[in-house]
Amino acid sequence: MERATFSKYSWIDFAFSVVGVCTFLVDWGSDVWVATELYCRGDVVWFAVLVGLMVLSSVVVQTFSWFWFKYDRELPGFRNQTVGASVFFGDRVTLFCVLHVLQLGFLCRHISAIRQGFRVWWRKEEGSEYAVYLTHDLSMLRLIETFCESAPQLTLMIYVMLHTNKARTVQFVSIAASTTSIAWMVVDYHRSLRSFLPDKAKQGWCSSLIYFLWNLLLIAPRVAALALFASALSGYMAAHFLMLWSVFALWAWQQGTNFMDSVGGEWLYRATVGLIWYFSWFNVAEGQTRSRSVIYHSFITTDGVILLTTWWCYRDPVQTESYALALLIALPLIYLLGLLFKALYYCCFHPKLWRPPVRDPGLPVDQPDADVSFRVFSIQDGDLSSQLLNKRMAGHAARFYSKKGFIRNSDSTNGAESPRL
């Protein structure tokens, strides 16, 4: 069987781990500061909404982390690892459970990744596979946190600014930084997935930039449209969210997702996917990826038009006179520009196959590209029972880069793929 060399832990991974824990602490500190300011100003409703988003996001992330801990501790490879933070494994399950109840499990994962990364990168010790494993899980958890907390908070921030009709420079800077951070987390997750694809070229900085731009240009007008709708009809915002979230969660169920190792965990995942889809596209299943993407963007475009039209009809003409027409024209154009950048990315900047994949004769011919790394290749020149494969992220790579979503050009000599939207 063909062996593949997966990406080793590097100083860039270590830097991302350090930045990740710093961002986590700064994010929580800023959230507490904003919540305190709202409470001191007497904005009890907004304070309650903000705290509710913080608590909900934390509970969801800690629940995923706990589920994964329970699944992973049964893997033989994990029991052989020298883990950075000893609370993660061994016989300290109770302590780790308490840490998750106290909402500290995600932070402990960051600390463990830093310590393990320091051992591997600086001291040149063994354990690179486990360090990489941790970074993949953290990438997914950060993505979940982004759309459970950061995206809703950004919507709330814009809504408060519109509702009060007061905008300070620091608010604009904060909104721009939050939107950029959300788009960047999507790029970070995407780059993490690509490490499972040994047959594909690595994603360069130019490719990453285009990927970042089309996510930024699609997410920003979506969040703005939601905030504008809420500023005019705040009472209907919860109904809008619940209706779309329910539809998206059922759509995820209909696609037969298989990410978690339990029924309860899988429904939590589908509910989280529904929340992510409320703001941005996220592929969760193999098959006709392009068709699902077109359906999704058509639905979101229609919903955005309805939101903006409703806001235009029910807005305060006097209060919104200075910016209403500009936003009504700019937001659809920005979203259209984002779709064009997405098409440009898959046409010109999506990394191509750099060599034909080596296939197991016993596997079907139409295996997705990522399944080559997941099912055919082993991680190292050792038994898989003593090595670590992040099954969750490898499975996501298989679905995200499903070959059924694109058409291979059989005449190409370099194995290039036609774009998959």
From TrEMBL:
Listed under catalytic activity are: a 1,2-diacyl-sn-glycero-3-phospho-L-serine(in) = a 1,2-diacyl-sn-glycero-3-phospho-L-serine(out)
Protein name in the entry: XK-related protein
Q: What biological processes does GO assign it? A: apoptotic process involved in development; engulfment of apoptotic cell; phosphatidylserine exposure on apoptotic cell surface
Organism of this sequence: Zoarces viviparus
Tell me which UniProt keywords the record has, alphabetically. Apoptosis, Cell membrane, Membrane, Transmembrane, Transmembrane helix
| Membrane topology label | Multi-pass membrane protein
Where does the sequence pass through the membrane? 9-26, 46-69, 170-189, 209-229, 236-255, 267-285, 294-312, 324-345
Stored PANTHER family: XK-RELATED PROTEIN, XK-RELATED PROTEIN 8
Look up the domain of life of the source: Eukaryota
Where in the cell is the protein located? Cell membrane; Membrane
Kindly give the InterPro entries that the UniProt entry links to this protein: XK-rel, XK-related_scramblase
Family affiliation:
Belongs to the XK family.
What are the GO cellular component annotations? plasma membrane
